[in-house]
Amino acid sequence: MATFQDNKTIVPVHRPDLKEKIFFFISGILTSVPLTLFIGRFTDSLCVVWRVPIFYATLCSTAIFAPLIEEFAKAYPLFYRHGETERSVFTLGFLVGLGFGIPEFFIYVLALGVSIPLRLPGIFFHAASTSITAYGIATKRPAQFYLIAVVLHFSNNFSALFGPFWFIGGVAAVAVTYLLSWRLYRKTSERIVD
Fold first, then answer.
1. Secondary structure of residue 141 in the 3-state scheme
2. Residue 113 DSSP one-character state
3. β-strands 9-13, 2-6: how paired?
């Protein structure tokens, strides 16, 4: 186990091993996906109860509530952590998002018939957006980076409502999410998160 020395105090640095990384990946599947589906049922019914035209109900459900719920549900497993560095919290966030993105990919491809190339970027989009929130958790600014992830997710989902126009707004939202995630990863350090 590595140590971090600050003002003559030695603090053990916890670096997640393979078992813990697998735990967080599986948490994306077993915790985040069901939590999203559970909360999503209530918000979907809210959007329909208001008796608005179908486009607005879809906008409410897909573009507004889904990003809020999914980004929270994906970050939820990150509250189980102890003594990790900024970089390890970021990595665990990426793994949780990846665990969320893979089942969503299969749902869209196998159950809804969406093409594989169209849904493939979504796997890494979820990993990247969750790592953005994880960076906020690691740097003690969770709300700020959660909202950034939500806005990027909203932009992607909102663009998807317009079919082929997704290739303009959606691709840009996905690209910005990937690039921001990479930039934040490079900013992380081996500093311990309290």
1. coil
2. -
3. antiparallel
